[in-house]
Amino acid sequence: MVQRLTFRRRLSYNTNSNRRKVSKTPGGKLVYLYQKKLAKTPISGDYKTKLRGVGVRSVRPHKLSALSKRQKTVSRAYGGSLCHKTKLRGVRSVQRIIRAFLIEEQKSIARVLKAQEASKKH
Predict the structure, then answer these.
(1) What is the 3 state secondary structure string of the chain?
(2) Quick one: pLDDT band at residue 67, thresholds 50, 70, 90?
(3) pLDDT in tens, 91-117
(4) Where are the domains of the chain?
């Protein structure tokens, strides 16, 4: 007769986070070994392609905090989030730079107006 297996954790449903495989211990007993979720390679925001490069590791989000910067990015502008094609085409990156500049301008104008309001009150 086949040996029955029991879950080693509390979760008793067959969910994605509760994946397991059967393994035989040195004592000949069958036990469940829990499988970790598979990590996906980061993708580019503009072209939806996988980011290539030695520096870009595919790990689960919680593990990213433990990695050093060189394991998460590539040394170019927007290295860990956008692919090289974006830089080559330049169109979207230029739009992004202009947008960032305009947002900063908007913030500075708001600061100036706030200072003028404060000076009028005094």
Answers:
(1) CCCCCCCCCCCCCCCHHHCEEEEECCCCCEEEEECCCCCCCCECCCCCCECCCCCCCCCCHHHHCCCCHHHCCCCCCCCCCCCHHHHHHCHHHHHHHHHHHHHHHHHHHHHHHHHHHHHHHC
(2) very high
(3) 566 777 888 899 999 999 999 999 999
(4) 1-37, 39-121
